[in-house]
Amino acid sequence: MRAPQAADVRRAVQSHRTEILDWTSAFLRLPSENRPPSGSEAAAQDFVAGQCRAAGLQVQEFLPTEVPDIQSHPYWLAGRQYPAGRRNVTARWRGSGGGRSLLLSGHADVAPFEPDNWTVCHPYEPLVANGRLYGRGSADMKGGLAAAFWALRVLQDLGFRPAGDLLFESLVDEEFAGGNGTLAARLAGFNADLAVLLEPTRLQVCPACLGAFLGNLTIKGRAGMPFMGSEIPNPLFAAASAIGHFREWQDQWRERNSHPLFHEEGKQLNLVLSGISSTLPEEFAQLGTPLLAVISWIVWCYPGESERAFREAFREFWERKIAGDPGLSGFEVRIEPTYHPVRAWETPADHPGVQAAVEAMREATGSEPVVGGAPFSCDLGVYGDPGGMPCLILGPRGDNLHAPDEWVLLEDIYTLTEALALLASRWSA
Predict the structure, then answer these.
(1) What tens digit of pLDDT does each residue of 6-21 get?
(2) Positive or negative, the Cα torsion across 411, 414, 417, 421?
(3) N or C, fewer C-beta in 10 Å, the chain?
């Protein structure tokens, strides 16, 4: 069937607004927290699978570990656990033949709700206020998944029949530098001629995303109390000195790197210190000078930066600082990776799939969409490399991701539903 007109899609989305809100709210009420090494996505995935089956889609469910040889793949993150309910949900609307296929994808797992100082609503009791839908996972990224699902439902209601397959998936274990769920779907062959990841991009069409390197800087001395009058150098004082050096690293890293898709304010490379501790896991904390201080860090990078180049530059920087800073002398200082790197990725902005997404957003919004890089790291590279797909990110506006009072702009869910329906109908016709 011919692709529907934009006006018809808009009217159909308008007629389903209440259902879309109810569906998204029901999804948000199902806690699906990722707490490594495991996660609680089962109830949310049951909901998605049931909704896809009710819509007449061909549904397949599987644990990441059920994919042959996946644990030997270089993108596999070891140490994660997949109990019986922690499975991917993939759904297919099979086309009549001859058209291009499209994958609409996202993850059902959300960050834990802590710190528990939510003020607008309980994390899993969604609330609409001032045009915002509040709740854990609303922006990251159940709002985007809701828009993708309802884009297909709207096309069904309009009587559209795709020529190419339309695929929809809800994946597990993306948070905390994961990606095993995404990798499993790619290696299982659930791929298409174009993939759209529904992470929140503020309605920008993003054919690129940042990568991330994660690790610890450990400063080790000797523990104890100065009962005998001798000074015991404290690694926490050394950590204070090291934190200043991290600020210097960020300035130098930004000066060294640039990318044309990341020129907007707020898209510069950041370094995040995500934690500092003075005890090992399961270790009792003595009252005294600790043995060590561990600073956990994340460094983002643009597409094109290799892990090897980063490691060399980072190591050389810290070798100079350790040698030249008296505050670090006398300590053993180690730099170690923690999670595996989250890979940056870029699809050429002039790719037909990217341009088709731009046109769909233009029709849905009546304005020229911004084409740029997503200022966060995600698993886009898993779609592009093991999946072998041109891929982009397109999602709604929101805020307080991984923080209390997370929200998504409700109007953006409706706009995104319209844009994805237009893209799906035109790409697959």
Answers:
(1) 999 999 999 999 999 9
(2) negative
(3) N
| For the chain, counts of helices (H) and of strands (E) | 10, 18
Q: Tell me the per-residue pLDDT of 77-105, one tens digit each, with 9 for 90 and over.
A: 999 999 999 999 999 999 999 999 999 99
Tokens of 271: 């370094």
Are 229 and 330 in the same domain?
yes
b/e per residue 250-284 (b: at least 16 CB within 10 A): beebeeeeebebbeeeebbbbbebeebbbeeeeee
Distance CA 207, CA 351 (A): 9
Residue 238 · residue 324 · CB < 8 Å: no
Are residue 306 and residue 422 in the same domain, yes or no? no
Question: Are residues 235 and 132 both part of a single domain?
Answer: no
Assigned domain for 258 exists: yes
The tens digit of pLDDT for each residue in 129-154 reads 999 999 999 999 999 999 999 999 99
For residues 190 and 279, membership in a common domain is answered with no
Confidence of residue 287 (pLDDT cuts 50, 70, 90): confident
